[in-house]
Backbone:
């Protein structure tokens, strides 16, 4: 999203930060409406808000970031119900213009039962959060927990992120979350605010205001809670086991060209928003790449990459039920790849409430390496009852073919 702005209500925060000259080493918890922000002594900052889920359990939405120039920004979910690797989550952001949806899968569960999604500060997810008014987060736990929804207020989030930019000395820089500018991340700048000397008639009044302000800041600081211990080591994006990327530069050229030339994808928009995932298996990489921007139904394609011989790269095609009389398809909505079983599933929603749609499950043939459709589920009644798509009514199964 190209609309970048600072709200005028945040101006006093920005000026006070510039006047201080350099970022502080530690920020006690500071509240802005429904959000708080705090930074530890290493300047690892966390902005967060708390709410309750549809089952009444506690939930926290966090936006966190390390102090290094150009570091990734993490959007983190922390429910009470236990998360598992592969858990699917979605955030629907409500704004004044259009709603925006983002899907993600938990590739690792962090301390405190958290799943997180990292990426650059200027990606679409953060841009839409900045412009949103509230958000609904849905997490598909499966089993008896089913799918839970958490309604989150975004009131005060921009102010909290602006304070984060200030504390990490990003005001006016390209890597800021809110306070953008043209200065390159990490570039040395010397900007300080200056003010005209007060007139004699106003000196006393200004002294009183300054004293009152200082007193208020001391009182607030004394009540603030200490920041939590940093978890920066859990966010090391150089970890060789990490398999989620948000930059096109990290995707092999041959895999990109499949999307651009064959499938007419908009990778420059979809990859920064949703991220591409790869799985290494010996000399082969399996890539799951988002093709287009979408709200409920994000189409992905799956491709095999041979690093030492990219000419052998190929994309996978998936079957449709025979009575549909439709050709195989390379794009699968909300595609999920199970690395252990090599199964591929896809879900297409008929409603923004995620209470109806279709679900397809494909298994790989060991000899050919191709996928076979095993079952196709469909729920046509959009009745407001949500739950795992795997529980929808069966419409077709390979057993009908005698397989």
Residues:
């Amino acid at each position: 999203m190209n609309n970048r702005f600072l709200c005028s209500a945040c101006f006093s925060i920005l000026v006070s930060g510039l006047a201080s000259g350099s970022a502080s080493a530690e920020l006690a918890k500071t509240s802005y409406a429904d959000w708080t922000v705090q930074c530890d002594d290493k300047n690892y900052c966390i902005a967060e808000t708390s709410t309750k889920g549809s089952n009444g359990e506690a939930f926290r939405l966090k936006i966190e970031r390390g102090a290094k120039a150009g570091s990734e920004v993490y959007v983190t979910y922390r429910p009470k119900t236990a998360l598992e690797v592969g858990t699917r989550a979605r955030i629907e952001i409500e704004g004044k213009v259009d709603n925006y949806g983002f899907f993600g899968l938990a590739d690792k569960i962090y301390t405190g039962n958290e799943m997180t999604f990292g990426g650059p500060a200027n990606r679409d997810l953060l841009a839409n959060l900045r412009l949103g008014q509230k958000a609904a987060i849905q997490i598909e736990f499966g089993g008896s927990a089913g799918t839970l929804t958490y309604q989150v207020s975004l009131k005060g989030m921009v102010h909290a992120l602006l304070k984060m930019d200030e504390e990490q000395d990003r005001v006016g820089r390209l890597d800021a979350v809110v306070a953008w500018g043209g200065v390159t991340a990490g570039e040395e700048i010397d900007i300080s605010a200056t003010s005209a000397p007060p007139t004699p008639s106003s000196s006393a009044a200004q002294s009183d205001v300054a004293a009152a302000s200082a007193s208020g800041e001391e009182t607030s600081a004394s009540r603030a809670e200490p920041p939590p211990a940093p978890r920066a080591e859990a966010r090391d994006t150089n970890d060789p086991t990490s398999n989620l990327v948000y930059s096109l530069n990290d995707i092999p050229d041959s895999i990109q060209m499949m999307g651009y030339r064959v499938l007419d994808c908009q990778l420059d928009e979809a990859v920064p928003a949703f991220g591409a995932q790869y799985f290494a298996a010996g000399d082969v990489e399996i890539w799951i790449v988002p093709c287009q921007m979408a709200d409920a139904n994000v189409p992905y394609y799956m491709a095999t990459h041979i690093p030492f011989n990219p000419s052998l790269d190929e994309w996978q095609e998936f079957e449709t039920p025979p009575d549909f009389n439709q050709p195989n398809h390379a794009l699968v909505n909300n595609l999920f790849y199970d690395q252990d079983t090599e199964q591929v599933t896809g879900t297409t929603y008929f409603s923004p409430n995620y209470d109806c749609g279709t679900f397809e499950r494909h298994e790989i043939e060991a000899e050919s390496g191709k996928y076979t459709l095993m079952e196709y589920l469909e729920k046509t009644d959009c009745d407001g009852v949500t739950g795992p798509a795997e529980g929808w009514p069966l419409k077709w199964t390979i057993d009908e073919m005698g397989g």
Observations:
- Helices lie at 11-19, 124-131, 157-167, 200-223, 253-262, 267-274.
- Residues 244-401 form one domain.
- Residues 1-24, 194-242 have pLDDT under 50 and may be disordered.
